[in-house]
Design brief:
The complex is a heterodimer.
Chain A lengths: L1 H22 L3 H21 L3 H25 L2 H6 L7 H23 L20 H12 L1 H22 L4
Helix pairs in contact in A: 1-2, 2-3
Chain B lengths: L4 H43 L15 H11 L10 H19 L17 H10 L1 H11 L3 H32 L4 H11 L3 H4 L1 H14 L11 H4 L9 H25 L20 H17 L5 H26 L7 H27 L5 H33 L3 H33 L5 H7 L2
Helix pairs in contact in B: 1-2, 1-11, 1-14, 2-11, 3-4, 3-5, 3-11, 4-11, 5-6, 6-9, 6-15, 9-11, 9-15, 11-14, 12-13, 15-16
The chains are: A mainly alpha, B mainly alpha.
């Protein structure tokens, strides 16, 4: 019961602030609502006992990427941007995609409802005592089963970083 | 029973300790932060051969309360073109992040605020770094040049130094092998030594990074009075300003607690495993009793009767604390309380020492210039921290796989890191010399006179 209350609270906050993020005209307000969305998602991770994902979400997205977003927004003159026409011309495509996605989710919920005695499949948290320690489990998978993809991803990021530095450097 | 009340009661039954702790944090931490300010002013006065605040209460002991009342009843000014919503949100975000981070800290083996979450230390560090958002949003929302300059500086500084500080923490976490706060301290007890003696460079890097992260001198460029009025706090007044200030001082406690937990042995007393040092268990009681006796001695010298009473009150509080800390030593059935009480004493003592070091640094060193700050962060601290992580990892492999002596392996780590530090400093000097001969700075005298 309480788990559901917490889940619906975080989910509601995430969806509401995501909608506000898209509709605000002021870029800084959008950024603030995006932060709220990310925090609410982190809350859902925490409720699912995925502590490492929760804190990675906070450190990387909220305190890392969003800080850089806001840093850029601070350097932009918002007054000009406020009076410009929004360049969203793909209204009908967006509508179509959204409807398709909503239909898909609806079908999924409807078909899962037919499983006898389960009702809607909501994320029910497993008792914390039954789960392995989250950080250790994640590290075990990452550095054991998926070591090569993990290393390739890190090399890829390094390449991207070096590339960015080279491109940002002044040509002499 | 009413079906909706039942789950709420069950929730309260399962979580009442945490809820009470949360209320205690929100109620007590502002008070502690206020007294930290008083301590800082007193120390600064002492180092400058002044007396500091003396008027409110004996030796200014009630000054924080007077300050708090003043800030609460001050006029709340919002600039005309400020963004109202974000202006309102920013100080709250800053303080909330700091107070939430306090929730992850354990003040002793039995004074755990939150449950021992799996990512304990990472939680504290990550959540406290969200306070930066409050600074940035506040600087932007005030719609003032000084504010936005302060916010930009703050962002650049914190992003740079969080990297170095995080890498320094990783060296300590490698030794502990876990992120849980209690397990980290247990690991230090198991090793029989605080991690600062195994990885001293890591603590040093974290110390510098944490001074920069809390925006304190010599890294207080985001609020440099002589350059930016008050940086991102320029347009904030009254209670909003107090919230920022509260967040800043709470962050000091948080970084102190992180350093204490990871490097300074948490709530372990010095020499935790040495039997003949057991007399150290009596130190907390004797220490508080000595403070009480000193208060009694000073009480006779107070000029006003109210101040004499107040001094006696402080003395009696100290005696009560000494009694509580000392009883488990004398009465056998209460012995189970000793690790908790003494642990809390040692933990708070270590945090206080760490914060004292902060203040000491603040009164001693002049403020850095911004490019010097960035150079220190990117050219020296971050490479040094990376080398330190690698060296600690190599030392641990040498110890576990090749059977080296732990002390020898760790000594090697420190030597490697120090050699790297000397090399980096040499390269830095060389570059600085090269750049100064190539292009002499314009009007160095004018710049000097405004520096600091």
């Amino acid at each position: 019961m309480l788990d559901k209350v917490i889940f619906f609270f975080f989910a509601g906050v995430a969806i509401l602030s995501a909608a506000l993020m898209v509709t605000r005209r002021n870029a800084m307000h959008s950024a603030v609502f995006l932060i709220t969305t990310l925090l609410a998602t982190a809350g859902i991770f925490l409720q699912l006992r995925a502590e490492f994902l929760f804190i990675a979400q906070i450190i990387l997205y909220v305190a890392g990427i969003m800080v850089l977003f806001i840093f850029v927004i601070m350097l932009v003159s918002l007054d000009v941007a406020l009076h410009q026409v929004k360049f969203s011309r793909q209204k009908w495509v967006a509508l179509f995609v959204t409807l398709a996605l909503a239909l898909e989710v609806g079908v999924m919920l409807w078909s899962s409802r037919k499983v006898p005695g389960q009702g809607f499949l909501l994320p029910n948290a497993v008792p914390a005592a039954k789960l392995p320690a989250n950080t250790e489990a994640l590290a075990g998978r990452l550095f054991d089963a998926y070591l090569l993809p993990f290393e390739i991803a890190s090399v890829l990021l390094l390449v991207a970083m070096v590339g960015a530095v080279v491109m940002a450097k002044k040509r002499t | 029973m009413n079906p909706t009340v039942h789950p709420v009661l069950a929730f309260l039954q399962a979580w009442w300790v945490e809820l009470v702790c949360g209320v205690v944090i929100v109620a007590v931490v502002p008070l502690i932060a206020g007294y930290l300010v008083l301590m800082e002013r007193k120390l600064m006065a002492d180092m400058q051969a002044r007396l500091g605040p003396m008027r409110v209460g004996p030796h200014g002991l009630l000054q924080p309360i007077a300050d708090a009342v003043k800030l609460l009843i001050k006029e709340d000014i919002i600039p005309d073109h400020a963004d109202k919503m974000i202006f309102w949100l920013a100080p709250v975000a800053s303080m909330t992040a700091a107070l939430t981070a306090m929730g992850g800290i354990a003040f002793g083996p039995s004074f755990l605020v939150a449950r021992d979450i799996n990512v304990g230390l990472l939680f504290v560090v990550g959540v406290s770094s969200m306070g930066l958002l409050g600074i940035m949003l506040g600087g932007w929302a005030s719609n003032s040049h000084y504010s936005i300059m302060g916010a930009l500086r703050s962002t650049a500084q914190l992003v740079s130094y969080e990297t170095a500080g995080g890498l320094a923490l990783i060296s300590g976490l490698l030794l502990a092998g876990t992120l849980k706060i209690r397990a980290i301290v247990d690991a230090q007890q198991h090793f029989g030594v605080w991690f600062v003696f195994l990885a001293p460079v890591a603590l040093f890097i974290y110390l510098i990074a944490s001074i920069a992260e809390t925006n304190r001198a010599p890294f207080d460029l985001p609020e440099a009075e002589s350059e930016l009025v008050a940086g991102y706090m320029t347009e904030f007044s009254g209670f909003r300003w107090a919230l920022y200030f509260l967040g800043e001082y709470t962050n000091m406690i948080v970084v102190g607690a992180v350093a204490t937990t990871l490097f300074l042995g948490g709530w372990l007393r010095p020499f935790p495993n040495v039997r003949w040092m057991n007399w150290l268990d009596a130190v907390p009681a004797l220490f508080t009793a000595a403070v009480g006796v000193y208060c009694v001695y000073r009480a006779g010298k107070q000029p006003v009767r109210v101040q004499i009473w107040f001094m006696w009150g402080v003395a009696l509080t100290c005696f009560a604390a000494a009694l509580i800390l000392g009883l488990p030593l004398l009465v056998a059935p209460m012995k189970f309380m000793m690790p908790g009480l003494n642990g809390a004493f040692w933990f708070l003592l270590k945090i206080s020492a760490y914060i004292y070091l902060f203040m000491w640094v603040r009164f001693t060193l002049p403020r850095y210039r911004f490019d010097q700050l960035m150079h220190l962060g990117w050219y020296i601290l971050i490479p040094l921290a990376i080398v330190n992580v690698l060296a600690v990892g190599i030392a641990m492999i040498l110890e576990s796989e090749y059977g080296w002596n732990r002390w020898l392996a760790m000594l090697l780590t420190t030597v490697i890191t120090l050699a790297t530090a000397i090399l980096l400093l040499y390269l830095n000097d060389k570059r600085a010399a090269a750049s100064s001969t190539a292009a002499p700075p314009e009007e160095p005298s004018a710049e000097d006179s405004y520096a600091g």
